[in-house]
Predict the structure.
Amino acid sequence: MKVTEHINKANGKTLFSFEILPPLKGQHIQSIFNNIDPLIEFNPPFIDVTYHREEYTYKELDNGLLKKQVVKKRPGTVGICAAIQNKYNVDAVPHILCGGFTKEDTENFLIDLDFLGINNVVALRGDAVKNETYFKAEKEGHKFASELTSQIQDLNNGKYLNDELLNSSKTNFCIGVAGYPEKHMEAPSLDSDIHFLKKKIKNGANYIVTQMFFDNKKYFDFVAKCRTEGITVPIIPGLKPISTKKQLNLIPHRFKVDLPDDLVMNVVNCKDNIAVRQVGIEWCIHQSKELIKAGVPLLHYYSMGKSTNIQQIAKDVF
Ligand code: FAD
């Protein structure tokens, strides 16, 4: 079923979902199941699986020279999605990127998903590869998520890259895209970011999932702005519980989001990361309850490969 159908079917009840990362190359898929198992009792209608593009690493050769290598540290997004649908009978939502993909790669990726019975995707641009300052699209690829959204929507209309294909089969993807309550880090202003978000919706996106935020006001203001701009699709809030002191610096740096002073001071005053974890859980429970009260369709949690804190939050909230 499509994400939007799950939301409509819930009839105003707030649903629970979460995002997982494929395991590092070399790990067993069981590590993923171990993270999903404790969360299944909260009836997620779908589970997102992130996509991780290639990275450049340098290997020292015997002669002392360095050899540049291209590696994918977390492959397996499509396989994990198929395994989730098969094992749990829950819809899996793979993320798909512009970065590292030509349009032909994208088309073939989508055909695989369609054949596997996966009909939800989150369409994203992706970030610059490490060692590069700016995002660079493939020569035959997309520069922005709005262009990728158009290609997916074309396939939904039976329009393939080769327009000589006759009687081509239509796909049936429900398309999610990213939204940034505190604006995307490269956007000159929130207004300009929402302008391009609108383009993603115009090109066929069916819902928005937000970047993590730690102050609900940022989400409420963002939704109000989007509605004023005529965006009517569901806007799903994304939440992440803080779990280590290090994240106080890492999260604002990596995701360009603010942490409220109260949260920061509560974490600073913790004597160890066990206490930080508890602070993160309590903060996230508070955020979740307020969002449910405001009638959000679904709460989407970023598990980042660890589910025990999400389980504790869900136990209290759902
Ligand atoms: P876009 O919507 O293309 O926007 C990128 C920037 O360009 C924005 O600043 C926007 O305002 C601007 N822009 C858009 N269109 C135009 C235009 N036509 N002209 C000029 N400027 C324009 N990354 C991964 O690698 N894998 C994942 O699985 C993944 N999952 C994510 C899930 C969520 C919910 C979120 C919020 C992010 C995720 N990311 C993931 C990170 C994402 O790839 C980055 O944030 C990336 O930098 C932007 O992606 P986007 O799809 O929002 O880009």
